[in-house]
Amino acid sequence: MINKLIENIKKTNAPIVVGLDPMLNYIPQHIQKKAFSELGETLEGAAEAIWQYNKGIVDAISDLIPAVKPQIAMYEQFGIPGLMAYKNTIDYCKEKGLVVIGDIKRGDIGSTSAAYAVGHLGKVQVGSNRIAGFDEDFATINPYMGSDSVNPFIDVCKEENKGLFVLVKTSNPSSGEFQDRIIDGRPLYEWVGEKVAQWGESHMGNEYSYVGAVVGATYPEMGKTLRKIMPKTFILVPGYGAQGGKGADLVHFFNEDGLGAIVNSSRGIIAAYKQEKYASFGELNYADASRQAVKDMIEDISTALNNR
Amino acid sequence: MINKLIENIKKTNAPIVVGLDPMLNYIPQHIQKKAFSELGETLEGAAEAIWQYNKGIVDAISDLIPAVKPQIAMYEQFGIPGLMAYKNTIDYCKEKGLVVIGDIKRGDIGSTSAAYAVGHLGKVQVGSNRIAGFDEDFATINPYMGSDSVNPFIDVCKEENKGLFVLVKTSNPSSGEFQDRIIDGRPLYEWVGEKVAQWGESHMGNEYSYVGAVVGATYPEMGKTLRKIMPKTFILVPGYGAQGGKGADLVHFFNEDGLGAIVNSSRGIIAAYKQEKYASFGELNYADASRQAVKDMIEDISTALNNR
């Protein structure tokens, strides 16, 4: 799957991923009204609105991008119906040829991590059948519990040719509270990065490992160090756009081959029509605004990479 | 909710919680057969088997215990139908007067943590309605991303009188890989414990905080230290029984008032009938075996607490 991700990036010339993280207040009124008139102001109604909204965006941008990253929390907040919209979104994006990164940030003791891995990336045994639950291509995971919480994910990835992105240095303001603390002269995130590189050696694709890392665009200097510590690790970079990261901050996350990183934008793309810059598209044409925002993001990153 | 948990513990005289973490191979053949004959060897069939199995156990033990802790991964592995069984289990246990601790170990950047908090502990706004998604009483969360990933959970807990257990020192063998690393002379888990105590001050119940901690039974000496660092923090203690923790290891997790900790057992209770000790109950009477295992666990912990 890391090979397919890289192939998609080369084909689109766009090392970006669009975060499908819908909030109800992003969704245009005409979509909300239709869903609520059919299903009421219920979890089902909200889930239907999200799904229609996502579908509109994916139809408008799928030819421009290699991958999407639905954030499961934004669906989970609407309970079971929300999770059904998450699953529909995954299936639809895969049909369109997109790589799907499930942003689930799971992680637990061994047998429990194995259950998450099976449910999201693998197949669960039921009697004589093996059945996929959510079936994302990649999943994000949390390393706080150490190797025996990560290895069950790697095992399933090996079976299924799927991949991971392990949290190393997250994009949020207080990520440093624990991640930046100094251990034997180096911050915790570097020790985690080193482990990610080791874990990755056990499951290599052609050029990069199936085991990637998450490093926030908001910390470009740390990205530079981590790039060196993890040369064969693909880095998923959140925090571009709405969280403050800019194209120029991103160059150090990439290797000389122009690969090695994929930059995420969520709000900046899916709710583009709410920005002054794209307001002329109007709410009805929200998906066209998203398409333009994708083009502008690709241009911003290409320019930064060409100027380095 | 921390007050209700303590009230339930005093009423049952049992500082324990039963982990409802079903694996298909724990479930007696007669339950699996019935579910599969109705719904096939499908995710729906597996979910039905899990739900019937849980219901049998809860009916047999609910008068003896204060709380249950369903591990969402064990349901999530069966996709949407599995999560419906998770939700049914929560609702049923709450009807029985049990406190429900959702073992979800979520955590993300601010707005995303807020979505998880709303979905699991609060209510989501849909038009003019506020609707609960999963509606557990407590949730476990992961602190790797720092305060701004934890605070949105605390905010929802304040609104809803609900609570948290934050991972501090987990029960698994490789938990020390990062958690035990020394920072300014003290292990990371102590720094996290100190933060948990601080977070807890902002949301106090009568005797203890609504913000609890997870510390594994498998590390009793560390439990002793953490008990002192977090005097007003309730500690959820996994790792008893199947993972190797014994009653005598647990005394240091409790305060002098006999409170301050709640010990989890999962497999040791719900799959008791598979142990030699309880084999005489037979597979058909699996729930009676679980009831006896609960009584034995309460006895083991009471004896240890009385002998300290």
TrEMBL record, chains A, B:
It is an enzyme of class 4 (lyase). Residues 15-281 form the Orotidine 5'-phosphate decarboxylase domain. Pathway: Pyrimidine metabolism; UMP biosynthesis via de novo pathway; UMP from orotate: step 2/2. The keyword Lyase applies. Pfam families: OMPdecase. Its EC number is 4.1.1.23. It catalyses: orotidine 5'-phosphate + H(+) = UMP + CO2. The active site is at K105 (proton donor). Keywords: Decarboxylase, Lyase, Pyrimidine biosynthesis. The keyword Lyase applies. GO terms for molecular function: orotidine-5'-phosphate decarboxylase activity. One of its GO terms (biological process) is 'de novo' UMP biosynthetic process. SMART domains: OMPdecase. NCBIfam families: pyrF_sub2. Belongs to the OMP decarboxylase family. Type 2 subfamily. This is Orotidine 5'-phosphate decarboxylase. The gene is pyrF.
